[in-house]
Amino acid sequence: MSRDVRRRAVAEALGTAFLVCGVVGSGIAAQRLSPSDVGLQLLQNSVATGAVLVALILALQPVSASFNPVVTVVEAALGRVGASVAVALVAAQVMGGLVGAVVANLMFDLAPVSVASQERGGAGQLVGEVVATLGLVVVVFGALRSPRAETVAFAVGGYITAAYWFTSSTSFANPAVTLARTLSDTFAGIAPGSVAGFVLMQVVGGVLGFLAVRALHPPAPISLDQESS
């Protein structure tokens, strides 16, 4: 593994760990601060998640800031990263997410691992995951075409904050984060038995997002000069 790939993998692991800390930790704090108001808990959780995404993307984008296996695989499909690099980054994202969940539990004096019991599923929530992931991919790769690098951070943070509310699944939209959330039996948790359905729908959303990005932003045609060079 080259030094550049190692740097990118460290950035992805660190960023995903902090992202999961933000998701899980703010969920625990919300439960404790507003124990009788689930709507307020969701508001607190969504704002914290959107804010930490903005900060992490701004800080780590110069190295690597996908924090999401679906986004990384779409990057590979679009030719932005090689397949071997994508595998390394996805592995780093998954490991970082698991560490982030454990750290979040420890910060709030909980057991390092508590298997989540909250079942999530049903047709509506599964459709919600397709919509959430499709929208995320379109937002990420549309914002990347902006001449201002910080556009991606604010676009993604804003989208995820909103998608917590307009999708029935509260917008997991990330296989690494979904898996990590099985390790905390708290507000943000998801039971292990619900993970496969969520991840499958995230993959479907990623494929649809890839097709949408291709339709909206087709590759530049190769000129005659390029063909002859």
Q: What general form does the structure show?
A: globular
Low-confidence stretches: 223-229
CATH architecture: Up-down Bundle
What share of residues are in beta strands? under 5%
Question: Secondary-structure map with pairings?
Answer:
Elements: H1 3-33, H2 38-60, H3 69-77, H4 83-107, H5 122-143, H6 151-166, H7 175-180, H8 192-216, H9 224-228
Helix pairs in contact: 1-2, 1-4, 2-6, 3-4, 3-8, 5-6, 5-8
Index terms:
0% strand, mainly alpha, 229 residues, Glycerol uptake facilitator protein, 9 helices
Describe this structure in words.
- This protein is mainly alpha-helical and 229 residues long.
- It has a single domain (3-218), classed as Up-down Bundle (Glycerol uptake facilitator protein), CATH 1.20.1080.10.
- It is built from nine helices and no strands.
- α2 runs antiparallel to α6 (151-166).
- The protein is globular.
- The chain starts with a helix and ends with a helix.
- Mean pLDDT is 95; it is low at 223-229.
- It is a multi-pass membrane protein.
- This is Glycerol uptake facilitator (Major Intrinsic Protein Family).
Short description:
This protein is mainly alpha-helical. The protein is 71% helix and 0% strand.
